[in-house]
Amino acid sequence: MQRACDSDASPATAATAHSSAEDQELSVTLRRRPRARRPQESHPPHLGPRLPSRELGRRGEEAAAYYLGQRGYEVLERNWSCPAGEADIIAFDEAEEMVVFVEVKTRTDIAKGLPEEAVVHSKRRRYERIAAYYLRDVMEPRSECRVRFDVISLLVVGSNRALVRHHIDAFSSPE
């Protein structure tokens, strides 16, 4: 057997020529190309392996703290815990002279919505309780301070890049 049309054959097609005295036949055999497998996850391939959610959240909080520092905020606490829960970042906004409680949300895609959409009513109420504990336990007694609740959302768009949105005064307690 001799291969014919090797230079013209596509990877999916192979042609072989049978030589015999009685007849010359050209037979074509089609080979199926293996199907490209679709990724099981909705994770973009350019981001490399998927990070565990805690690691993704930790990196998002680091980026948010850096972002706030670059904008003149003083980061007072990170991952501050109390009986009401944990605040991702507590910062002081010197320009506005207020304590800012920041919820950080990081996502690698928007299949489940934008990161800031995950800050639902129950999480807002929890942050209000966390603020009450913080003001009672950490701030100087009888010191007056204004409080604000912000959300920083990060949408990862590359291995070391993210779209950052800072939602200032994202929610507040009803008065």
TrEMBL record:
Residues 7-19 have a biased composition (Low complexity). InterPro entries: Restrct_endonuc-II-like (IPR011335), tRNA_endonuc-like_dom_sf (IPR011856), UPF0102_YraN-like (IPR003509). GO terms for molecular function: nucleic acid binding. Residues 1-55 are annotated as: Disordered. Gene3D superfamilies: 3.40.1350.10. Belongs to the UPF0102 family. This is UPF0102 protein HLV38_00785. It comes from Berryella wangjianweii.
